[in-house]
Specification:
Blueprint: H1 3-20, H2 32-43, E1 53-58, H3 64-71, E2 77-83, H4 86-95, E3 101-103, E4 116-121, H5 133-148, E5 151-160, H6 176-186, E6 191-194, E7 201-207
Parallel strand pairs: 1-2, 1-4, 2-3, 4-5
Antiparallel strand pairs: 5-7, 6-7
């Protein structure tokens, strides 16, 4: 994905922040209830058992996922956020001065990033703005393959489903077969699609190892 295409997505999110402020609309979610549901589903990628889990929030935006984690008293989660928008990161650092927020394009400068138990990307791949499907899928493919190198246990992200009455041109709708083929070929065959939670999207959990019941 070229710098111009990365800038297209960044500028769209920064425009939303200017227009709507620090709230769900400002990061592209229609209402607080849907946003809360997405946060819960995203964090369900964490498998039970560990006392603490480190998480990298890729595309952290205004830090709303961290707000949710703290609101629910999730002391089992050690959070790090990253974004390529300095406007969003400035707001995050103002709100959470005790938290590590990583700035810059980590996808092109990732060797020093370190490892995390889980990496989550909430809303990063749901909006494509003016990009084509191929351009956006190229971004998703490149980003997930690079992020996977820094995930010890698993990764979670969401995209818009193609099982809808109609598709919006600015949203990124991906079929199950297209996603499954990519994951098996380039990430891991241990994945799960969740689409039961009532929104026009699905969340993907990808793991390094299978879940043994």
């Amino acid at each position: 994905m070229t710098k111009d295409r990365e800038a297209t997505l960044r500028e769209d999110y920064e425009r939303r922040l200017r227009e709507y402020g620090d709230n769900p609309l400002g990061v592209g979610w229609p209402n607080p209830q849907d946003a809360e549901l997405r946060y819960r589903v995203m964090l369900d990628v964490i498998r039970p058992g560990a006392a603490t889990n480190s998480i990298l929030d890729f595309g952290c935006g205004t830090g709303a996922l961290l707000e949710n984690i703290r609101h629910h008293g999730r002391r089992d989660i050690h959070y790090t956020g990253t974004d390529n928008s300095e406007k969003h990161l400035a707001l995050c650092r103002q709100k959470f001065p005790d938290v590590n927020f990583i700035s810059g394009d980590i996808l092109n400068d990732a060797p020093g990033l370190g490892e995390f138990d889980y990496i989550v990307a909430n809303g990063v791949f749901t909006l494509k703005a003016s990009l084509t499907h191929a351009e956006m899928f190229g971004f998703l493919s490149s980003a997930l393959q690079k992020l996977w190198l820094h995930a010890r246990l698993g990764m979670a992200f969401n995209v818009m489903t193609k099982h809808v009455d109609w598709e919006r041109d600015d949203l990124f709708h991906v079929g199950f077969d297209e996603m499954a083929s990519f994951l098996k070929a380039h990430i891991s065959r241990h994945f799960l699609f969740r689409s039961e939670y009532g929104l026009w999207e699905y969340t993907v959990y990808v793991y390094r190892n299978p879940q043994r019941g």
